[in-house]
Amino acid sequence: MTVFERIYEAVQMIPAGSVATYGQVAEAAGNRRLARVVGYALHANPRPGQIPCHRVVKKDGEVSRAFAFGGAARQAALLRAEGVEFLDETHVRMDLHRVSFLPMVH
DNA sequence: AACCTGACTCGCC
DNA sequence: AGGCGAGCCAGGT
Predict the structure, then answer these.
(1) A3-97: which CATH number, 1.10.10.10, 3.90.110.10, 3.30.559.10, 3.10.20.30?
(2) Which of A19, A44, A70, A101 would you call most buried, defined as having the most Cβ atoms within 10 angstroms of its Cβ?
(3) pTM
(4) What is the mean pLDDT of residues A26-43?
Protein backbone atom coordinates (compact mmCIF):
# COMPACT_ATOMS: atom_id res chain seq x y z
CA MET A 1 0.00 0.00 0.00
CA THR A 2 1.69 3.15 -1.19
CA VAL A 3 1.14 6.60 0.23
CA PHE A 4 -0.73 7.64 -2.90
CA GLU A 5 -3.15 4.74 -2.54
CA ARG A 6 -3.90 5.67 1.08
CA ILE A 7 -4.50 9.23 -0.03
CA TYR A 8 -6.98 8.10 -2.66
CA GLU A 9 -8.87 6.00 -0.12
CA ALA A 10 -9.03 8.91 2.30
CA VAL A 11 -10.42 11.21 -0.38
CA GLN A 12 -13.14 8.71 -1.18
CA MET A 13 -14.35 8.92 2.44
CA ILE A 14 -15.36 12.55 2.04
CA PRO A 15 -19.17 12.56 1.85
CA ALA A 16 -20.99 14.43 -0.94
CA GLY A 17 -21.86 17.94 0.13
CA SER A 18 -18.74 18.22 2.29
CA VAL A 19 -15.13 19.17 1.68
CA ALA A 20 -11.86 18.31 3.42
CA THR A 21 -8.57 20.20 3.42
CA TYR A 22 -5.35 18.76 2.02
CA GLY A 23 -4.14 18.60 5.61
CA GLN A 24 -7.13 16.53 6.76
CA VAL A 25 -6.61 14.07 3.92
CA ALA A 26 -2.92 13.91 4.80
CA GLU A 27 -3.76 13.09 8.43
CA ALA A 28 -6.21 10.39 7.38
CA ALA A 29 -3.47 8.95 5.19
CA GLY A 30 -1.24 8.75 8.25
CA ASN A 31 0.86 11.92 8.32
CA ARG A 32 -0.27 15.53 8.12
CA ARG A 33 3.04 16.53 6.60
CA LEU A 34 1.89 14.77 3.48
CA ALA A 35 -0.39 17.72 2.72
CA ARG A 36 1.72 18.70 -0.24
CA VAL A 37 1.96 15.15 -1.50
CA VAL A 38 -1.84 14.98 -1.38
CA GLY A 39 -1.86 17.65 -4.02
CA TYR A 40 0.55 15.68 -6.18
CA ALA A 41 -1.49 12.54 -5.76
CA LEU A 42 -4.71 14.24 -6.80
CA HIS A 43 -2.93 15.80 -9.75
CA ALA A 44 -1.99 12.31 -10.87
CA ASN A 45 -5.56 11.07 -10.20
CA PRO A 46 -5.50 7.63 -11.83
CA ARG A 47 -9.26 7.05 -11.35
CA PRO A 48 -11.20 10.17 -12.26
CA GLY A 49 -14.90 9.60 -11.69
CA GLN A 50 -14.16 7.39 -8.73
CA ILE A 51 -12.01 9.76 -6.69
CA PRO A 52 -13.91 12.96 -5.76
CA CYS A 53 -10.86 15.19 -5.90
CA HIS A 54 -13.11 18.25 -6.21
CA ARG A 55 -14.00 17.85 -2.50
CA VAL A 56 -10.46 18.69 -1.45
CA VAL A 57 -9.62 22.34 -0.86
CA LYS A 58 -6.95 24.40 0.86
CA LYS A 59 -7.20 25.00 4.62
CA ASP A 60 -8.90 28.37 4.13
CA GLY A 61 -11.46 26.86 1.77
CA GLU A 62 -9.90 28.15 -1.40
CA VAL A 63 -10.14 25.95 -4.46
CA SER A 64 -6.76 25.30 -6.03
CA ARG A 65 -6.04 27.33 -9.13
CA ALA A 66 -4.00 24.44 -10.48
CA PHE A 67 -7.05 22.18 -10.66
CA ALA A 68 -6.36 20.50 -13.97
CA PHE A 69 -9.87 19.34 -14.81
CA GLY A 70 -11.54 22.36 -16.36
CA GLY A 71 -10.20 24.88 -13.90
CA ALA A 72 -11.38 26.19 -10.53
CA ALA A 73 -14.75 27.24 -11.97
CA ARG A 74 -15.40 23.63 -12.97
CA GLN A 75 -14.52 22.38 -9.48
CA ALA A 76 -16.78 25.01 -7.93
CA ALA A 77 -19.63 23.94 -10.21
CA LEU A 78 -19.27 20.30 -9.14
CA LEU A 79 -19.38 21.33 -5.48
CA ARG A 80 -22.38 23.61 -5.90
CA ALA A 81 -24.19 20.72 -7.59
CA GLU A 82 -23.77 18.85 -4.27
CA GLY A 83 -25.16 21.75 -2.27
CA VAL A 84 -21.88 23.30 -1.17
CA GLU A 85 -22.11 27.06 -0.65
CA PHE A 86 -19.41 29.57 -1.52
CA LEU A 87 -18.24 32.89 -0.12
CA ASP A 88 -17.12 33.93 -3.60
CA GLU A 89 -16.08 32.22 -6.81
CA THR A 90 -13.14 30.40 -5.24
CA HIS A 91 -13.84 30.07 -1.50
CA VAL A 92 -16.00 27.36 0.07
CA ARG A 93 -18.00 28.13 3.25
CA MET A 94 -15.74 26.03 5.46
CA ASP A 95 -17.85 26.82 8.54
CA LEU A 96 -20.69 24.83 6.93
CA HIS A 97 -19.06 22.15 4.83
CA ARG A 98 -15.65 21.19 6.18
CA VAL A 99 -15.76 17.60 7.49
CA SER A 100 -15.28 17.57 11.26
CA PHE A 101 -13.27 14.38 11.19
CA LEU A 102 -11.84 12.15 8.51
CA PRO A 103 -11.17 8.55 9.63
CA MET A 104 -7.65 7.16 9.34
CA VAL A 105 -7.08 4.82 6.42
CA HIS A 106 -6.40 1.25 7.67
C1' DA B 1 20.36 6.51 -10.22
C1' DA B 2 20.37 11.39 -9.24
C1' DC B 3 17.81 15.49 -9.98
C1' DC B 4 13.73 18.28 -10.78
C1' DT B 5 9.20 19.59 -10.13
C1' DG B 6 4.57 19.87 -8.45
C1' DA B 7 -3.47 20.59 -6.26
C1' DC B 8 0.01 22.21 0.79
C1' DT B 9 0.80 23.30 5.65
C1' DC B 10 3.07 24.78 9.61
C1' DG B 11 6.64 26.94 12.45
C1' DC B 12 10.11 30.31 12.84
C1' DC B 13 11.88 34.56 12.10
C1' DA C 1 1.49 40.28 9.55
C1' DG C 2 3.79 38.33 6.00
C1' DG C 3 7.69 35.91 3.96
C1' DC C 4 10.74 31.68 4.07
C1' DG C 5 12.19 26.95 4.52
C1' DA C 6 11.28 22.25 5.57
C1' DG C 7 8.81 17.97 5.44
C1' DC C 8 7.03 14.57 2.20
C1' DC C 9 6.24 11.17 -2.52
C1' DA C 10 6.14 9.62 -7.42
C1' DG C 11 7.02 10.07 -12.18
C1' DG C 12 9.53 11.99 -15.90
C1' DT C 13 14.04 13.42 -17.82
Answers:
(1) 1.10.10.10
(2) A19
(3) 0.94
(4) 94
